[in-house]
């Protein structure tokens, strides 16, 4: 018997098996396909499962989602953008398994609170900064889902003074300002000639002034969003992960300086913002915990479906 974890991300799909300690093994990844998206996802899941009996499947999907219907509509997947019934599709594939579905930010915060930088902390905001920006919330020891399962989707908090268009159709979202691709686009408008977030980070470390300015701009926007969210949530700790969050000191110094400048209320002053201790398998680990907790009715389960 195996428990599967599935991560529907902005640039890749990943799947693996997971145990009760959040250890993910047999991980396989594929780029997000341009067409026949579910067919590619199905092949990924069946290749990981092999001939084993699948007990449970945990799914973490890029949002927006609707956990009431098991639907995801990632902005980066045109074939699914108007809603794909992912939970039902997985249930048909593994009809005898328990299926649990959540936005990827829920999986992230669950993994961070169970095994990462927020280990044992009862009030946590976790966010991922990568090709997009997402997040999840644990309040008083329990995951917050909201009406449709999108609570904690911090990428669409508005950054004051920004009119950057966002893929959601709005303007000024922190995702449109501070994600990896958004920062690259801004840097290129200033004359930088690179093309990826990794190249931008490398250039900043080498002293490129435009790259440094891009990372500082991203860090400032993230700091504003975090300060706003902390005032709303009254949280103990913020954990920041994702590939672009590893861009280095220029981003992190601006982020922390901005939080210190804006988080001035008695209950936000001194807010701790820490980098994730988990690898890029954090969402998979959290999705696996969805599956494990559902299948085992595990003690300390902080989920409520």
From TrEMBL:
Pfam families: ROK (PF00480). One of its GO terms (molecular function) is fructokinase activity. The keyword Protein biosynthesis does not apply. Keywords: Kinase, Transferase. The keyword Kinase applies. Its EC number is 2.7.1.4. It is an enzyme of class 2 (transferase). InterPro entries: ATPase_NBD, ROK, ROK_cs. Belongs to the ROK (NagC/XylR) family. This is Fructokinase. It comes from Nocardia otitidiscaviarum. The gene is mak.
